[in-house]
From TrEMBL:
<feature type="modified residue" description="4-aspartylphosphate">
    <location>
        <position position="55"/>
    </location>
</feature>
<dbReference type="InterPro" id="IPR050595">
    <property type="entry name" value="Bact_response_regulator"/>
</dbReference>
<dbReference type="InterPro" id="IPR011006">
    <property type="entry name" value="CheY-like_superfamily"/>
</dbReference>
<feature type="domain" description="Response regulatory">
    <location>
        <begin position="6"/>
        <end position="124"/>
    </location>
</feature>
<dbReference type="Pfam" id="PF00072">
    <property type="entry name" value="Response_reg"/>
</dbReference>
<protein>
    <submittedName>
        <fullName>Response regulator</fullName>
    </submittedName>
</protein>
<keyword id="KW-0597">Phosphoprotein</keyword>
<dbReference type="InterPro" id="IPR001789">
    <property type="entry name" value="Sig_transdc_resp-reg_receiver"/>
</dbReference>
<dbReference type="GO" id="GO:0000160">
    <property type="term" value="P:phosphorelay signal transduction system"/>
</dbReference>
């Protein structure tokens, strides 16, 4: 089997983070976590990440701001990381907003874990 992929989960809810972590670890993904936008940005500068599950309502820099900064990063390895938005406030955004920010896909909360696995495999495998 190929090396397992590393996913950064940007999520401030420890309950959602832990559930998501367990489900993705069962699929053989390596998981790292960030509780806020600053941690997201520091982590991707220091560590190779194959994909990001980005809560749009994380503290500090929100997920949309982080996504725009990632897409504007001069390092193509960072700027091209697949980003899957996860939000309970999808009604605040249109698909056009997500596309403009550079989000590859989005999952509504509460997260459907079958859809999560399917979406992660589609964009991060």
């Amino acid at each position: 089997m190929a090396d397992s992929k590393t996913i950064l989960i940007a999520e401030d809810s420890s309950v959602i983070l832990n559930l998501t972590r367990k489900i993705l670890e069962l699929q053989n993904y390596n998981i790292i976590a960030a509780k806020n936008g600053s941690e997201v940005m520091k982590t991707i500068e220091k560590q190779d990440v194959d994909g990001i599950l980005m809560d749009l309502n994380i503290p500090g820099k929100d997920g949309m701001t982080c996504t725009r900064e990632i897409r504007n990063n001069p390092d193509p390895k960072i700027s091209s990381i697949p980003i899957i938005a996860v939000t309970g406030n999808a009604n605040n955004y249109s698909m056009e907003d997500f596309k403009k920010a550079g989000i590859n896909a989005y999952l509504p909360k509460p997260v459907d874990f079958d859809m999560l696995v399917q979406t992660v495999k589609q964009y991060i495998s």
